[in-house]
Amino acid sequence: MTVVIILISLFAFSAIIYGVVSRREQRNMLQEALGAMENFTPTQELNSENPVYYFAVDNRRQEMFCFSDSKAVRFRYKDIVSAEIVVDGDVTETHKSASLGGALAGGLLAGGLGAVVGGSSMGKSQSVKKIKTINVHILLRNAEVNTYDFQLFNAGYEIKTDSFEYKKSYKNARVIFDALKLAMDKVKLEVPQPQVVIQQKSTIEELKELAELKQQGLITEEEFATMKAKIINK
Length: 234
Description:
This protein is α+β, with helices and mostly antiparallel strands. It contains six helices and ten strands; from the N terminus they run αββββββααββββααα.
């Protein structure tokens, strides 16, 4: 019995040590990725030590940087196609089109991520259940990768949806999701709308069309004379 307890203790201790080493390696990878970046000045940031992840926004350059699960990606606002919050493989929130509105939009655009955290809802749950993963799935175009999964919780064990760990992870997922959503909307608003140019008809063209209407019997002689006078005097 004593031997079994010792083996279990050693296994648990090894797992803890491995986790510490793994987190240290990921932090080193993050620092290397940040050190290699040029022309990127974070105006908003979100980071975590356990698990190790980092999310940053450069509003001036309209770019974002994500680091999660040892993977880093940098992309422009206009590269974002869609964003989803995914819990255990089920999509809880998704955004593909522009729909600015409410305090949330003003919060991020004016004050940054910190302003959004307090107002973000954590999703409406009908009943308490257990989950294993929380991700933000990002679909990109013209970027280093086509899809990116930002992992906010993937510890290999289950947590309840009414636990502090779940609420914190989901709130951070909402912060990232809201930032992505507002970035898409910002691009949408900045796209120049096509201008409609109304071609003015010349007097000769208008008289010609009027004569055709008379020939076709669509207007009387009196109507033709009245409308002709208006065109000439215009």
